[in-house]
Structure formats: C-alpha cells, structure tokens
Design brief:
heterodimer, A: 69 residues, mainly alpha, 0% strand, B: 371 residues, Amino acid/polyamine transporter I, two-stranded antiparallel ribbon, globular
Chain lengths: 69, 371
C-alpha cells in the first residue's frame, strides 16, 4: 500500500509539473516539492501503519517495527 | 497574473453554497433538540454583527484580501503570524468537510469502499477547480445553486405528508440554556465559518459590496438552514434527530408517495456533493492563497495540488470514527472555532480602525503644517 502511495504521488507530481512550463516564479518549485514530500511522507506512513498486522495499537507497532522488536 | 473578478451575484451564490456546505446534511444546533429552530434564529441574529465586522474590515481595504490587510495593519512579521492562524483554520475546515463527505459516502452509499477513496476523488476535483481560479468556481456556483434550490424545494414539498407539527412542542421545555448552547453551536457551524470568505472576497467586482453580499447570503442561506431544521424536527422528531448522524438523509428517506415516489435520499447526497464541493474548494483556495502569500509568491495555483493532498491526509487521519466526528462537531468545534471567528476578527477590526484614525490625524497634522 505504501509503495502504491509513493508511485501515485510521483504520478500526480509528474502530471502537475507538466503545467509549470509557463511558470514565472521558479522559486515556488522548492516549496511545491517540500509540500509534496511532506504530504507523501504522511500518506505513506499512514498507509504503512494501517497495514501493520495488529490494528490494536498502530503507533506502538510502528515504533516497534522501526526499532526491530 | 491578471486579477480575477466575480460579480456580487456570484459572490452571493458562493456564500450561500458555502453556508449549505455540510450543514444541510449533518444539521446544526442539535443541543437545543426540538428548539433547534429557535437556536438557529438566535444564531442568525448573532451572526449579523459578526458578519458586519468581517465586511467592515474588508471595506476598509477595497481589493485586498485578509492576508494583505493583516500584513498592512500588523506589519510583515506579526501580520504573517496572524495569517498563519487563518491559513490553518481554512485548511482544517476544508479537511473536516472533506472527512464529513467521506463519512457520509461510507455510511450511506459505499460501506465496503475505503474512506480514503471518495475523499481523494473529491479533493482532486476540488483541486482542479481551484487551479482554474475563483472565476470558474463562481461560475460553477451559479450553475449549482439552481440545482440545489430546485432539489431543496422539491424535497420540502414531498415531505409535507410526513410532517408532524406536534414534534415542535413543547417549546423551551428544558429552559433557555440548551437553546443558547444550540445557538452557539449553530453560529460556529456554519455562519461563523464565513470568515474564510474574507480570504477570497478581494475578487468582488464592486468595491465595498461585501456588506451586501454577506447580508443577502446570510438571509438566504440562514433561512434555508432554518427551514431544513424545522422540516427535520417535524418529520423525525427530536429523539430520532439526536440518534442519527445525517438527519436530512433519514428525513428524506421517509418520503413515499403512493409507493411510487420513494428512495429519494440520493438527492440529499447530490445537494451535499454540490454544496460541499464549493465549500471545500473555497477552503482550499483560501489556504493555498495564504501559503503562497506567506512565502511571498503571487501565483497560488501551483501549490493547490500539494495543499489539497495534505488536506486529504489530514481528513483521513483526523478522526478514528464517525462517532468521534460527531462529538467533535457538536462539543468541541464551537469553542475551537470561536477565536478564529470572533476574537481574531474583532482584534483585527480594532487595529484597522486605530490605524485609520492615526493615519487621518497624521494627514491632518501634515496639512496644517503645510498651511
């Protein structure tokens, strides 16, 4: 699921940036990328947590899975 | 970038649909039970001076939105801090309405579909229209309002056989306190939410028409909300209204004309989709415009997609269940929204008026010195 999320974000960004060819303020691009990365990170983490084996305590499971126990 | 302009009529359409938003489906002022209609009337009265505050702030700086006004009145840094609060409010409100839509779809139409699917679809459509600009959004609202009003009047007409006027009685049996609580709730949702329009009403063609747009919209939208509340109480009764999440949907599902005209509840979903679309789009537009201005950019359109996707994330993560959503909307939202809807605009108005007086005095002193 999290992989699908990342692929979808890339796809949406690709289509979205197609319309940037006539962009006058190029400085806005870093902000666009930062916001997209934050959004993708939240979406991916949420998808990852929701698909962990036990839904009883997803945050705890997430942390435990990171530290490997 | 050319400045986009909308007519007063389009502004009214946008505001009325913004008021309808999710209110017509979720309902408001539920604390007052069968006195809900009194609570909504009271909320309408409370809303008038508050909306006049919004209009006064905007009319002091014609052609400027709230973010520009904040920066001009409070300076670059303090103004941007104030802007940040309003960006958050618009963003959060958009996410809440998006979640309402997701829950509605999940409960009444698509129980097996993951909630995120209708939320993403709806958000992408909203992002698309916001990218096209406020003019396109205003044109959409002019089209939608015809459909929404036709459906509302048709449905009201069809529910007449199911209405029981005794459901409105007894009046104020539990005293005035629940009515006041209901009025406070009804003020914060939806009338106080019109503060978000301060971020987009720089686009009104006629300068200083904010008063007119706000007042006419409040009268039209407010009376429709009041009418729907009365209809729901008369059809369902206070007990049923308190136990369902979407009272209008349940009320319309009772329509059965000669075993032929029935299952009309889909029209409620249609009204929700049309008005919710406008409300989410306006919130997204306000938040995106604010973020672009915060970082000193003129064109906001590029940021619409990432902000919209962030809104989707927030909408998905914000509640665990529909019960939590209902509890938040009824018990927490009025207190949470109060500073954004009343305290901050009041502070801004005071600052705007003080600054205007100081400027006037400085101008007079300069003239006298020249003479």
């Amino acid at each position: 699921m999290w992989l699908i999320m990342i692929i979808l974000y890339f796809f949406v960004s690709y289509i979205d940036t197609k319309s940037f060819t006539r962009l006058k303020e190029k400085g806005i691009l870093p902000l666009y990328i930062i916001l997209m990365v934050i959004s993708c990170a939240i979406g991916t983490a949420s998808a990852y947590v929701n698909n962990l084996p036990s839904p009883a305590d997803p945050i705890k499971n997430f942390i435990l899975s990171i530290i490997g126990s | 970038m050319n400045k986009e302009l909308i007519s007063d009529k389009q502004g009214i359409n946008l505001t009325v649909l913004f008021i309808f938003g999710s209110t017509l489906v979720i309902g408001t002022g539920g604390q007052a039970k069968n006195d809900m209609w009194i609570a909504i009337m009271l909320a309408l009265l409370i809303s008038v001076p508050i909306l006049m505050i919004y209009a006064r702030i905007l009319s002091r700086y014609p052609g400027k939105d709230l973010y520009d006004i904040l920066e001009e009145v409070f300076g670059k840094y303090l103004g941007r801090i104030f802007s940040l609060t309003f960006i958050w409010f618009s963003f959060h409100l958009g996410a809440l309405v998006l979640r309402n839509f997701g829950e509605f779809m999940n409960t009444v139409g698509l129980p097996e579909t993951p909630k995120i699917v209708p939320i993403i679809m709806f958000a992408l459509i909203c992002a698309l229209v916001v990218k096209s600009g406020i003019e396109t959004l205003a044109k959409c609202s002019s089209l939608f309002i015809v459909g929404v009003f036709s459906l509302l009047f048709l449905l009201a007409f069809l529910t007449i056989p199911d209405m029981k006027s005794e459901n409105l009685l007894p009046i104020m049996y539990n005293g005035f306190k629940p009515v006041l609580q209901g009025a406070f709730s009804a003020f914060s949702f939806p009338f106080g939410e019109l503060v978000v329009l301060m971020m987009v009403f720089d686009s009104l063609k006629t300068p200083n028409s904010n008063y007119k747009v706000y007042l006419i919209s409040l009268v039209i939208g407010g009376f429709i909300v009041l009418f729907i509340a009365i209809r729901n109480i008369m059809v369902l009764g206070p007990e049923t209204i308190g136990s369902v999440y979407f009272p209008s949907y349940t009320a319309i599902s009772r329509v059965n004309i000669g075993n032929f005209l029935q299952r009309l509840e889909i029209t409620v979903a249609l009204v929700f989709i049309l008005s919710g679309f406008i409300k989410i789009s306006i919130c997204l537009l306000a938040a995106t415009k604010g973020i672009a201005k915060l970082f000193g950019f003129k064109d906001y359109r590029i940021l619409v997609t990432p902000v919209g996707l962030l809104m989707v994330n927030l909408a998905y993560l914000i509640y665990d269940s529909i019960m939590e959503m209902s509890e938040w909307a009824q018990d927490i939202w009025p207190y949470y929204a109060f500073p954004f809807q009343v305290i901050l605009p009041l502070l801004i108005l005071i600052a705007v008026e003080v600054k205007a007086k100081l400027q006037k005095k400085a101008g007079q002193a300069k003239n006298e010195a020249q003479v």
